[in-house]
Amino acid sequence: MQQTVWAAIQIINITFGGLVLCTYSTEPIDAMGASSVQGGPFSPETLFEPKALSGPEMLYVSVPPFRPKTASGPETPLGLESAWSLRPPAGRQPLSDSQISFASKSPFSQKGLFGPETLCGAVPPFHPKTASGPNPSSSPKLPWVLQFSSVSELPSDPVPSSGSKIPSALGLASDSEKPSGGQSAFSPKASSGVGEPRPNILLILADDLGYGDLGCYNPQGKIPTPHLDRLARLGMRFTDAHSPSSVCTPSRYALLTGRYCWRSRLQCGVLGGLSPPLISPERFTLPALLQKAGYHTACIGKWHLGLTWPRKPNTPPFTDRIENGPEGWNVDYSKPIGQGPLTVGFDEFYGIAGSPDMVPYTFIHNDRVEVPPTVDKAFPMMLGRSAMTRRGPAAAQFEAVEILSVLTRKSLEYIQCRAPEARTGKPFFLYLALNSPHTPILPSEPWQGRSGLNPYADFVMQTDDCVGQILAALEKHGLAENTLVIFTSDNGPSPQADFATLRAKGHDPAGGLRGAKADLWEGGHRVPLLVCWPGRVPAGSCSNQLVSLVDLMATCAELVGQNLPDHAAEDSLSFRPLLLGKATGPVRDSLIMHSITGKFAIRQGAWKLLLTPGSGGWSSPRDPEAYREGLPEVQLYNLAEDPAEQKNLQAQHPEIVKQLLKLLEQQVAEGRTRPGPPVKNDVPIDIWKRPTPSAKP
């Protein structure tokens, strides 16, 4: 199709290494020829590594609307694809791929406009070659060249014929190959309801990522997170969001059930990789709710909520405690796994059983291990350190350093697989539970040393890149406009990150908050929360309201038009009004937090009461130490005046202590905090967990 495009092209927001380039061009662009626009300036020397290698980086280009002119006039309702390429600046030689290609696909609007579009591509590594040699002490500020190649008509997206099967993105069996008795992961579900198409939902849960690890939360931080910062610019950033617990398993339970985990049998700590399921098949969950609404549901990544492993004869049952390692050989890996993700609402699962420092070390496809373990393995807890994970059964080729890359690839495959149906109104829900930056802190080789800080910072950068690749895939497949993207973390940063080294280099993973993972202080459970839904959630917005990951179930239910049963999501409150700019007041009056040792805290407004004399976790003073020091049994802070929790006001405000304690006791006893009839907790709840008299000083 021969045509000429006349445009006033403004290339904006070309983000490269966190820098912004702006340029303008008003020349006509011939679709069958070529024209270029130059971006700049930027300082390439800030991107060089010790070996004078720069890149790889992700680069984004926003193209504003322009009108295509054809023989039939400017109002022709066609689908078009514009092709662009990017060349390095003069004096910069790529190691591979002399050009980076971009493709932007969009139908015309009613007024014949093409765009706006966001193009994205990966810039490969390159050596800075200049007249002064391959590693100059300073480099000129040179532009990259963005070149328009062509614009052409798009073919219609193929729609599967009736009865056709969509291949699984996770490498699973087709309908005819699946074991009998289970629902096929490939059978398209009918759309439930009419009206506005429901969004695809992408929920990304990082593991042990700190509130201060993202640039959009901590401008003084030293770890580049350009993709997550971009996500914040495209959507809403929450500054007072909390994980329901300061450790992994209970936060994941609350996220997927809308219920505080301490209402279950797990009163402290986390499960192991071999532990029995924590979510019963009868409990209504977030994926089950979305299945009911017509979604295809998938979980990729770290499960850590227990599985029914088939045991070898005459071996003891597994318990909730974390296994030592050799116990993993008591599993019969030739048999299918019983209860797990597929029994609580997910159509597909690909991932690992528990944390990546727990056995067994192998990937799981649906209800079977991908490769049965045949060897014993252990991995460094952090790159370059001698401390190791538990030694136990592993697949021969399994390497912890590859987990994040594998999960990223599987997510991209899933999005590609579901895209054709998603574009026809059959949405998907992808729960991507990353293993990073949790121990073992092992960034893949291309990311090792990238931050200049330590391996934890490198791992955070790789996590950011994973998100960038997934956002790019949504754009590539035409899904970005109708996908609700949620990014958060299961708790605060772990001390395994080596806080001393990071802070000595100017980076605080907790962003000025007190405490860390496992603690009741804010650093243990205040987490980043970014939500993006183009055209619905205001871009560049920020909410200071109190919310929790336990609220995601009620929020998603309201967004897709589903009602929650009284017996489900007992502690989940919808913050949909915040997302859509329709909130007239606080969506949540109070919030309960829980630590690794089972200690409780409650928040109401600016006031926070902790029922423990110490951290409730791993930070000093730990509770036994605090008891020995004779510290008050409770702590009371006004977070509006003292966000770092330095001034315990329990003696000055006993009336507030009494008020918050009464509220906590009431919410525990009623079995719920969402409005509805009282329900029973699974076990009796001890909100104090005081030490025995013999343990006191």
Describe this structure in words.
This protein has eleven helices and 31 strands. By secondary structure, it is α+β, with helices and mostly antiparallel strands. The strands form eight sheets. It has a ten-stranded mixed β-sheet with strand order 20-19-18-17-23-14-24-25-15-26, sandwiched between helices. Strands 3-2-6-11 form a four-stranded antiparallel β-sheet, with helices on one face. β19 and β20 form a beta hairpin. The longest helix has 22 residues, at 455-476. Residues 1-81, 94-100, 102-124 and 128-195 have low confidence and may be disordered.
Q: Please tell me how large the radius of gyration is.
A: 26 Å
Q: Please outline the major beta sheet.
A: 10 strands, mixed
If strands are numbered along the chain, what order do they take across the biggest sheet?
20-19-18-17-23-14-24-25-15-26
Q: What is the typical, i.e. mean, pLDDT? A: 80
Classify the secondary structure makeup into a structural class: alpha+beta
Distance between the termini: 85 Å
Shape: globular
Write down how many β-strands occur, each being a DSSP E stretch of 2 or more residues.
Answer: 31
Q: Tally the helices: what do you get?
A: 11
**In what range is the share of β-strand residues?**
15-25%
Q: Any low-confidence stretches, pLDDT <50, length ≥5?
A: 1-81, 94-100, 102-124, 128-195
Report the helical percentage: 10-25%
